[in-house]
């Protein structure tokens, strides 16, 4: 496994990015300003993470996705730990926003995140179609945080 920072042509990984954020116009809001990291296994891109600095030592994971064929194999956790190591000296709080989903909340909790706050109606107000995950429509954005 190898994790590389991508500085150019980030949209070449759109297929992976869309796994975590299914509306391209939303990805466009953060992709250019974020640090993008791609996890490779045997030369194949299997995971992606985009991190944005919000200021005052706060960083946010805006997009974290792994290819469905490797779910449950530790690649998502490896990306989170990589980010924590990479930003440890500059980061006092690492945030991640996600839908209130039984598929993602437990994953982040296992990675050491705890609920920080919520943004009501985020998915209804910002997406042009209903976002479904695990058979549930996502409505509120749930922010979780951890120390790096």
What key attributes describe this structure?
single chain, 148 residues, alpha+beta, Aminopeptidase, seven-stranded mixed β-sheet, two-stranded antiparallel ribbon, 24% helix, 38% strand
How many helices in DSSP terms?
Answer: 5
Task: Examine the coordinates and then state which fold CATH places here, giving the name of the CATH topology.
Answer: Aminopeptidase
Molecular shape: globular
CATH homologous superfamily label? Gcn5-related N-acetyltransferase (GNAT)
Tell me the domain tally: 1
**CATH architectural type:** 3-Layer(aba) Sandwich
What would you say this structure looks like, in words?
With 148 residues, the chain is of the alpha+beta class. It has a single domain, classed as Gcn5-related N-acetyltransferase (GNAT) (Aminopeptidase). Helices cover 24% and strands 38% of the residues. The chain contains five helices and nine strands, in the order βααβββαβαβαβββ. A seven-stranded mixed β-sheet has the order 1-2-3-4-5-9-6, with helices on both faces. It has a two-stranded antiparallel sheet with strand order 7-8.
Quick recap:
With 148 residues, the protein is an alpha+beta fold. Helix content is 24%, strand content 38%.
Which helices and strands appear, and what pairs or packs with what?
Elements (H helix, E strand, L loop, with lengths): L1 E5 L7 H7 L3 H5 L6 E7 L2 E12 L2 E9 L8 H13 L5 E7 L5 H6 L3 E6 L2 H5 L5 E2 L2 E2 L3 E6 L2
Parallel strand pairs: 4-5
Antiparallel strand pairs: 1-2, 2-3, 3-4, 5-9, 6-9, 7-8
